[in-house]
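Researcher: Can you fold this with NAI in place?
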Amino acid sequence: MARDPVRVLVTGAAGQIGYAIVPMVARGVMLGPDQPVILHMLDIEPAAEALKGVKMELIDAAFPLLKGVLATTDVVEACTGVNIAVMVGGFPRKEGMERKDVMSKNVSIYKAQASALEKHAAADCKVLVVANPANTNALILKEFAPSIPEKNITCLTRLDHNRALGQISERVNVQVSDVKNVIIWGNHSSTQYPDVNHATVNTSSGEKPVRELVADDKWLNGDFITTVQQRGAAIIKARKLSSALSAASSACDHIRDWVLGTPKGTWVSMGVYSDGSYGIQSGLIYSFPVTCEGGKWSIVQGEFSLFREIL
Ligand SMILES: NC(=O)C1=CN([C@@H]2O[C@H](COP(=O)(O)OP(=O)(O)OC[C@H]3O[C@@H](n4cnc5c(N)ncnc54)[C@H](O)[C@@H]3O)[C@@H](O)[C@H]2O)C=CC1
Ligand SMILES: O=C([O-])CC(=O)C(=O)O
């Protein structure tokens, strides 16, 4: 029997990440090849024409899984009945800025959109905040939408996680799909801590620790960390625009694993509300290693004595 479509909201849909992510959602990259979707796309009035153009292209692409497209500048209409909300709307930083420098502009958007989501989204709506500063925007959304369960509000640090996997795969010269269990701790900002102390590489003779294969602690404790922390700035310097295709792809990874589950023995990094694990203040939105099952995430516990020492 055909499945009911899932309604996926993308805010800021006329922007760079929006333009990259909506075809991914429509093609099944986010929710799987058998899951029909209805896209709700929100942007603001000055981008209304561009948003119309994105809708036209989605129709022209004739995606078999795409069962409807709503393109609107009305936040209530956009949020009504959505099961998944990917919150990209906001302003990106420019070269030389930190992500917190867009805080005053973007935080007010999340305050305003929280109540529309709270009142009009489906009761079990899963929310992913992408717009920067992502942890803060998610925290604001959580504070201003108190009836959305805390567990349903997350932010994107999967891009940092994927960047860490990419750096290790380049360094050891293995497929990125053979590297797993890096961890991004903290904020999606230059203060994050990319941790490879429990990461492994799948080799012909079994799983080997990343530290053993890289065999260069100076690099792992130095340039590796700063490269991941500063990758967003490096992309802005090179492209004169912030990362978009990798952000869109990582946002799909985040939602797919949350909804469909993480593979056995694998964890991923998600910005989630802290329950006090690892001594992190309860209620903050913080990136932890998580596993997902049955549409729920859980913080991986008890494996990381080394991280405790760092703290
Ligand atoms: N968490 C992460 O890993 C990443 C986060 N980002 C952040 O994602 C955000 C979007 O980036 P881009 O797509 O490159 O920016 P963009 O400027 O290309 O697109 C943003 C879109 O949001 C729209 N917008 C502005 N205010 C809005 C509102 N109140 N409601 C709905 N839409 C609104 C704009 O009109 C624009 O179309 C930025 O804050 C950026 O820093 C970017 C890359 C990675
Ligand atoms: O660096 C930025 O401003 C965009 C972003 O969050 C990233 O690429 O990680």
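Model: Folded with NAI in place. The longest strand covers residues 285-293.
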